[in-house]
Structure formats: C-alpha cells, structure tokens
Write a structure and sequence with these properties.
Distance between the termini: 17 Å
CATH architecture of the largest domain: 3-Layer(aba) Sandwich
Number of strands: 10
Strand content: 15-25%
CATH superfamily of the largest domain: HUPs
Helix content: 25-40%
Largest sheet: 10 strands, mixed
Number of domains: 2
Mean pLDDT: 78
Order of helices and strands: EHEHHEHEHEHEHEHHEHEHHE
CATH topology of the largest domain: Rossmann fold
Number of helices: 12
Amino acid sequence: MLNTALYAINFGEFFFENLECFANLAKIGLKEIVLIHVIDIKKLQHSLYSRYDKEDEEKIRKTSEIRLEDIKKNLEKYGFGVSYVIKVGDIADEIVKEADREDIDLIVLDKKTAGRVNSFFSFYDSPLYDIIAKSNKPVLITKRTLMHSSSLIKNDEKDNLDCKNTFTDVVFATDFSESSLKAIRVLDKIPSDIIKTMTLFTVIDEKYIRNLDKNALESFEHDIAEKFESIIEDLRYRYSKEKNNLNIAVRKGTPCKEITDFIEQTDKKLLVIGYKGEAKEKFKEIFLGSTAQRLIGALPCSILVVK
C-alpha cells in the first residue's frame, strides 16, 4: 500500500481549492499526509525588491500556517491523518529532505492547467525537475483544473474532473529496461480493484526494424511478446485479456511523441513511467528535451514517475 504522502503546496496565483480530488487518493490506501510549504528566500528577495530579513520570514510563515491549517482541516474530514511543515530554503532540496525524514511512500506535486486548456509547463526555473532527479521516492504529478474559485466549476463538471479518477485507467509505458520495470513494484501496491484498465505500452524505433529481414522481424516481434508476458506475470496475473482489464499497445516512432499522441487519443487518466538511467545527467537528457517538456507539461493526464 501507498500509505503516506508528502504534498507540496506553493500558494501560487491559482491554487486548487477542490480537495475532493486529492481525497480520492484514499482509494489507493493513502492514510497519512504531510503538507509542506517551502519559503524560497531567493525568489522573495527578487519580488520584494528589498533586503529580506527575519521579520519578513515570520510574516510569511504566519500567513502560510493559516492556509495550511485550513487545508489540514479539510483533508481531515476525509479521514486522513494530516500534519504540516514550513521550511525555508531551496524548494526541491527541502521537499526531498522532508520526504526522506518522514520516510514517505509518495511525493505529490500539482501540474497546473487553467480550465480545460492544456498548458505548457516548463522544467526551466521550476523545482519539479530537481525534485524528481534528487529524490528516490515515487513522484505523482497530478493534473489539476485550476480556477480563481472552485465555485467556477459547475457541479456536473466536478464529477468529471480527471484527478478524481486518476487510477482507474492506467498506461504503463516501458522500453523493457531494468529501470523502467521498477514501476511494477509501485503498481503492485495499488489495490487491484482500483485500476479498472491497465494498458502496457511500448514504442519501437522504426530505424531499428527497417532493415530486418522477415525471419529477424518475426524473432523481434516474438521477443516483444515474451517481454509483455513477463510483465503480466510480474503483475501477478491481476490483469489479463480474459478479464477485459488489460490492453497492449505497440507503436512505431519517437517515444515521447507516440506516448503523448496515444494519451490524447484515448483519454487515459494516468501515465506510469520508470526512472530512466542512474545519473542525474542521464535523467536531465531525457526529460529536458522539447518533446519531453510536452510529455510532462502538455500531457492531459497525471504522471507517476518511479525510480
């Protein structure tokens, strides 16, 4: 089970007020939530155009405590055990340290979109990349529909918010590498009755198979089929075509583009991907390309990154 989560809150211009969506994480076994807000002194110095001192910090801390206490009370109504901390320093570093200190199971971050229009969320000047790169914890980047006021969301629309059904329809994208298959251990922690449909997804590089003869191509396709069967076995037969809760999708082309297109065409709710590579430089190479920014930023679903 994923029992404990660290939920990072930044109190931006828009912030998510409909906590019913976050409350739905109780379905995956979540019981304890640690709310964290990090006061970034460097950004405050820039925004205040003045020397930042301890008095400024105390004012911001008191305002943050009021907001966090309100969120805490709302989440407690759903049966969660909730605590909160306020840190001062580098946002990513403080979040990663707190996650280790509390030994949490999951870091939860918001991916903000205005209304129903896909937004472009860049890693640059954002702590999101650093959190994923530095932490060894699974990171759930949740899609949030943000409004100035939750009252702007009509009642009939609230039931259809993507974040309320995050774990019902999951895509596990893999290249069958050891690093990507690490995601299986997290999927195994999610109750089997929560995930209604699982799609195993891979992308084949057309350049690789272009020059294969018929026998070599058949051998390659057989190898792919065996790898899919191995994943299904690792998932302990929770998903199968016979149960009508398992789909297998294979596409040819560039991974980031094909994954994005598939999600957009099928309206999936959650993409699960394994951490690719051990070094931070390797991870940066994968996640900071233009197509990868589209994958994390403009993809219309939540994303679970597992190391």
